[in-house]
Amino acid sequence: MVFEKVLGWIGKISLVIILILTGYGVFISYKNYRIQAERMELEHGKEEERKQNLASEEARKQAEDELRQLQIDKNRGFNPRGKMTLLNHENIKHEGIIDHPGSLVCENVANPTLIYTDEVNFALERIIQDIIAVKNSENMNKNGDCLVLDEENDGYSPWLKRNNVILYGAPGTGKTVFVQELVHHLWHEFGEAVMKRKDDYVKELERIEAEIEETKNDSLLSEEIKLSRLKSFQDLIDEQKNEMRLFELSNKIPPVWEINGERLKTAGGIEPNSPTVADLINMLIKHNKKQYFGDEYSDEPYILFFEEADTLGDVMSRKPGKYLEELKNWLSKSEDEAGLRAEAQDLNCIVIATTNNFNDLDPGVVRRGRIGKTLNFDWDPIILKKYGEAGGVGKKWAKVNWPVNDKGWNFENNANFPELVKLCSRFGYSKFKDKFVDKANEIIASYNNLNENEKKAQEKDKLGYVKEEGGGEACNWLLHFLYTFNYFEDKRKLHLWTDIKQIMRYDFGDAYLLREDIQGIYKQIGMEIDCFKVMNGHLNQILQQLAQIKDLMVETQQLRQEVLNMQAKIRDVEGLVDQLKNQIQSNLSSIQTNLRSLDYKIDSKYNELIALINNTRSEISARNEQANRRMSSMRENITSERQNISTAIEFLVDAVNSDDISTKNFNIQQALNILR
Q: What stretch of H or E contains 325?
């Protein structure tokens, strides 16, 4: 009995010991788990802290570099911040090009508005294709071997620099929009791929974040497994971020930086130690390349767009004919291949400059190796016609209803094409769309309502005619129409022009009008010569009639001779035919009477013809005297005009040579009075 109790106590004690040992084992396992978890958290925290410290160190270093650069810029008196604008698809207005060149397409533009010449379209496409070729080359064109050589085949042919171009023309003709088109197409070629990759990256991050949340909320997983998975997810996020950073670095969209000339004015005459325009440009490029590419000497292609380029430079020394002179050395140096390292333009950079004053640029800038290409954006008659035909329903402007098959509205082969180009060069997109289209249709409608007599009256009395290439004459209605439109638009009284009958004759100038007067004199002389030819024909007819009278007189003389012969015969037979004497005498008397009557008629007719000849001679003499007086008067008028022009020229020469303003004005006024 006692033995059984002892065994019971031993069993109970053993059970207690087993329970204690099991609890202790669980406690030890829990402690180990906590220690492991704390160690992992510590290591993970240290890793995060290390990354944060590294990021902070990089940020601190970048801030110190920027501060150091700001200090340098401050010491030099120039801050590059905000002086250049990075153009992108978000801060430009993409208008779209009608009849886009080559393989280029304007996406997301239902109604394109721009019309360029073939030359401008070719230049746009070539720039895009050249940049694509450079970006797709493995060596980023470091050796200049990825571009097809252009027609010049010189040292600049393998590089993007060959596309340097000046865009010139009147305001509103599409110069700035040309650059915006480049920005749009560069974004389409390179930016869309980056955006797609970013979208995929964001989706992947969202997927990982969702799995992280799912792992955190999974109650079936142990803490150790959760921590392990969370660490794997964090590593995956870091890997994705690193891949995206490397992708963005290697797939940078070729930037287009805009520099407004007004922001790069210097005053070298006042501050002789201030940086030059070339120095300022170099600082701007280095600053922005460092920010965009991470390396100020990167070989990545980029475009520099100088808006209003003719305004940049030293305001103390710049003058017409020398604009952009300060950029000559920056655009072309003996160390061209070194680019920014030699304080010069990079070979994989394209400079695009716009100006409204092309003739004021330094000729040394506009040459191969500097800015070797020029594109004229001024409108010409063909561009104006195309814009008019491009309008219609759903477009931004109405279609211009140009008269069809009308010689007076000839755009391509106009006899006054130079004058027409001059008038069209004053147009731009806004002026055309907002002012010209509606007024043109209004006036053309009134032109179409003119009857033939009204049209001829306008042409003859007001507008005049011009000679056509194929011969003949025509009225240049198109020229006078555009001249009248510009006249009323300049006066800001376009609303007063409501009918084609108000059309004004194009101002050809005094020289052209004098030439027209001389042509009129020549035409009048020609008419007088034609009159002399008609009179000569009448004289020939009179001579023919006189010849006929002469023949009649010869016949009359023969008749007289025959009568005398008959009288002789009668006298010979008087004695033989005495019984017939009275009858013969009677007959003879009758014959004599008839002869006298015939002589009288002949004499009368002869006198009439002589009088007609004398009158004709008098009329011819009078007309000759009148023609001589006209010729003398015209010679005197021409001589007088020549003397007046010579005198006017003398006054103008005196005005040019004179230093006195009042004398200049007096001489010019005298010249104008004479020419009037």
A: none
354: β partners = 167
Residue 61 to residues 294, 491, 502, Cα–Cα distance (Å): 14, 62, 74
CB 194 within 8 A of CB 248: yes
Rounded Cα gap, residues 280 and 300, in angstroms: 21
Q: Is the pLDDT of residue 663 over 80?
A: yes
Q: First CA to last CA across the chain, in angstroms?
A: 159
Alpha carbon distance 83, 260 (integer Å):
8
Give the pLDDT band (50/70/90) at residue 485: very high
Q: Which secondary structure element, helix H or strand E, spans residue 376, and what is its range?
A: strand 373-376
The span from the CA of 479 to the CA of 466, in Å, is 11
Q: 3-state secondary structure string, 23-86? A: HHHHHHHHHHHHHHHHHHHHHHHHHHHHHHHHHHHHHHHHHHHHHHHHHHHHHHCCCCCCCCEE
Residue 398: pLDDT band (50, 70, 90) is: very high
Question: Going by DSSP bridges, is the β-strand pair 373-376/313-314 parallel, antiparallel, or unpaired?
Answer: unpaired
For 250, residues 6+ apart whose C-beta sits below 8 A from its C-beta are: none
The amino acid at residue 146 is C
pLDDT in tens, 320-367: 655 677 787 788 765 567 788 888 888 889 999 998 888 878 888 888
Backbone angles phi, psi at 443, to 5 degrees: -70, -40
Top-confidence residue, 175 or 204 = 175
At residue 511, the pLDDT reads: 46
Token pair 């006078």: residue: 480
Task: Kindly indicate the confidence band of residue 104, based on its pLDDT and cuts at 50, 70 and 90.
Answer: confident
**Cβ within 8 Å of residue 656, ≥6 positions away:** 664
CB-facing half-sphere around the CA of 36: CA atoms within 13 A: 12
296 contacts: CB under 8 Å, gap ≥ 6:
285, 286, 287, 289, 290, 340
Number of neighbours of residue 562 by Cβ within 10 angstroms? 10
Contact 525, 634 (CB under 8 A): yes
- Residues sharing a CB contact under 8 Å with residue 437, sequence separation 6 or more, in sequence order: 388, 391, 397, 398, 400
Determine the Cα–Cα distance for residues 58 and 289; give it in Å rounded to an integer: 19
Q: How many Cβ atoms from other residues are within 10 Å of residue 263's Cβ?
A: 16
Q: Which two tokens stand for residue 563?
A: 């009568």
Task: Check residue 78 and give its pLDDT.
Answer: 54
Q: 569 or 274, which is more confident?
A: 569
pLDDT the model gives residue 400? 94
- List, in sequence order, the alpha helices (H) in 354-476: 381-390, 417-424, 429-431, 437-448, 452-458
Torsions phi, psi for 514 (to 5 deg): -60, -40
C-beta neighbour count of 305 within 10 angstroms: 25
Confidence band (pLDDT; 50, 70, 90) for 107? low
